[in-house]
DNA sequence: CTGAAAGCGCTTACAG
DNA sequence: CTGAAAGCGCTTACAG
């Protein structure tokens, strides 16, 4: 064995190809292809020679050529409205983790508009990679992408809890945030609060209001015979939570608030602190997600832990299966949400 | 014009190729190639016919075939230790934004080990895409990737403020966090604090301690003739900040603490609150980054705003230039950090 | 200004 | 078990 072919090379000479390996091993490039693809019908001694040549030359199969010849690449493109908010970032982390373990490349493509040409362009670019696609479809751009995706495209989606059972064969996954919202709302009612106000994250549906999280909240109130206040329009971040908090702090009837996510809750807590409204003494506050900051706020935040990283891993697993077998897979929920009780919720006083 | 070739198609028939366009337009596929590449020497009428056929068939150039033929693809792979912590997530956001505007695909590859085979594998996979590479090199895995990258690889790095002027032609960018650390430390000293304690983020260097941020902090203390306390080992997240905070809260001599990032500061504030140490009454606390939560904590957090999204955009711009012209580019700092004064820092009392 | 030929590095039938 | 041929969809010289 020579010591020449240092993997990674000096950038000077071009990378070894399948033919270089073939001539080094004294076989045809076709046989090399069989070896690198683990094809069974290769004599052991031949295989050994080829493998030695591969190691010697530091050969790596060109993913590009492989993709062109096969018409399919080992990669996945994630279509997501953003990469920074907790749930999205964590889902992306889970996808990358699973993809890396399977030696898939992962591409990201931020989809921040639901205009048809924009969505079509994003889909076409994703399709152009020859890999699979994972759509994070919690908002209109994502839902639009699902609607506009061509039929044959290998595609998996993370969606909100479907209002009704999805069509069989829809490759969808979700966490049951409707049930989670119901649970946290019941917790609040159980503490003696007459009702629970809701600060909404932006929603998929035309009707607005945080869709399934709002639906679960509403269901719990209704089941308990509690009045259902108008949801307060929120957003994704602390600034919107702060705005909502200033509004709610003015109303002395408000004793319990559920926020559509922990970032909103952070801003809301700040607004309550400024207004001199004690949490949880006067008002209980709960969030959603169990984002990294939730446990360390003062007061620490009662919230619902959602396993977005697990959701991301499930998305990839589903897509991987779909890419291998081509068979449609059953939609299914993943990783049950869990209520985390902390300091920000307490019994109603007075 | 027929209405058949609906872009995106029905997944049924395969995508139109350059030859399909050619025969539809009555030219050779070579001429189609000229048109899609904006080659000047094509008769206007020919160009028009080809463009009509392209629109009609919904033709899109195969990125894969293009990459194979050219030996280079229009994509960038980001090598980063993680995708979720604020600075990394924001840098990634900036990269994606700039890349999308230039019609580049962006891939991500998390590099969480500095073991040589792991780093080589990540580099090889990135190189295999035929695109450029951006390394986020704030820690050992990233620095190792820079060391092991083959010479010819089109590569740009986001690095810590270099201790000495980097070799000319190093395609590096950074924010001047050393100067930023100096500035916030001076602010604290100016409030009357005898010294400033430092909770470190993990560092690149063997010596540990947050490298350039620590260096700036130390420089400011030394310049002021203040004692230099041993830095407290922190980490990336609130949990580590909490641990450090419990330790520092025990020492009554501690009146000012600088945290290597805002997530650490969050945990530290919690620890101080639990210990009954008033901020900023008894102790001043400052952070780094101006992460989204900083402005909404109680007390709100004095910090240094670092423009990571701008850093990400600068990385892509540099790489894009490098990919086009092949000329080496000068290393340079981007977006000056800015001190943001909030409630968590105040004059020393007693 | 335009076309015929060869090639990028693989894989997929088809022979033997 | 192994090789010669054709092809994936583009681009790059080379002719004309």
UniProtKB/TrEMBL annotation, chains A, B:
Stored SUPFAM superfamilies: lambda repressor-like DNA-binding domains, Periplasmic binding protein-like I
Gene3D superfamilies for the chain: 3.40.50.2300, lambda repressor-like DNA-binding domains (1.10.260.40)
Keyword line: DNA-binding, Transcription, Transcription regulation
HTH lacI-type domain sequence ranges: 16-70
Domain of life the protein comes from: Bacteria
GO molecular function: DNA binding
Pfam families: LacI (PF00356), Peripla_BP_3 (PF13377)
Name assigned to this protein: LacI family DNA-binding transcriptional regulator
Lineage: Bacteria, Bacillati, Actinomycetota, Actinomycetes, Kitasatosporales
């Amino acid at each position: 064995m020579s010591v020449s072919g240092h993997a990674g090379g000096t950038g000077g000479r071009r990378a070894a190809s399948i033919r270089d390996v073939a001539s080094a091993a004294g076989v045809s490039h076709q046989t090399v292809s069989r070896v690198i693809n683990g094809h069974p019908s290769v004599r052991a001694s031949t295989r050994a020679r080829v493998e030695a040549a591969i190691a010697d030359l530091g050969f790596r199969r060109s993913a590009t050529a492989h993709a062109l010849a096969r018409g399919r690449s080992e990669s996945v493109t994630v279509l997501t409205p953003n990469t920074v908010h907790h749930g999205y970032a964590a889902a992306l982390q889970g996808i990358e983790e699973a993809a890396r373990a399977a030696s898939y490349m992962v591409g990201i493509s931020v989809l921040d508009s639901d205009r048809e040409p924009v969505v079509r362009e994003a889909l076409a670019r994703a399709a152009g990679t020859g890999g699979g696609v994972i759509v994070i479809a919690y908002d209109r751009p994502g839902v639009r992408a699902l609607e506009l995706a061509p039929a044959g495209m290998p595609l998996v989606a993370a969606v909100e809890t479907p209002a009704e059972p999805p069509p069989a064969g829809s490759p969808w996954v979700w966490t049951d945030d409707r049930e989670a919202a119901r649970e946290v709302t019941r917790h609040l009612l159980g503490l003696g609060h007459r009702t629970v106000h809701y600060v909404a994250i932006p929603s998929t549906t035309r009707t607005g209001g945080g869709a399934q999280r709002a639906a679960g909240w509403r269901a719990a109130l209704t089941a308990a015979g509690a009045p259902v206040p108008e949801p307060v329009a929120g957003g994704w971040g602390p600034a919107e939570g702060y705005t909502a908090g200033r509004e709610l702090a003015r109303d002395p009837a408000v004793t319990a608030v559920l926020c559509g996510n922990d970032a909103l809750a952070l801003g809301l807590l700040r607004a309550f602190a400024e207004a001199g409204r004690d949490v949880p003494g006067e008002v209980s506050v709960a969030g959603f997600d169990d984002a990294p900051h939730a446990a360390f706020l003062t007061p620490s935040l009662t919230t619902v832990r959602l396993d977005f990283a697990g959701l991301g891993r499930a998305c990839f697993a589903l897509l991987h299966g779909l890419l291998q077998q081509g068979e449609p897979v059953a939609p299914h929920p993943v990783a049950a949400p869990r209520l985390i009780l902390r300091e920000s919720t307490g019994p109603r006083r007075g």
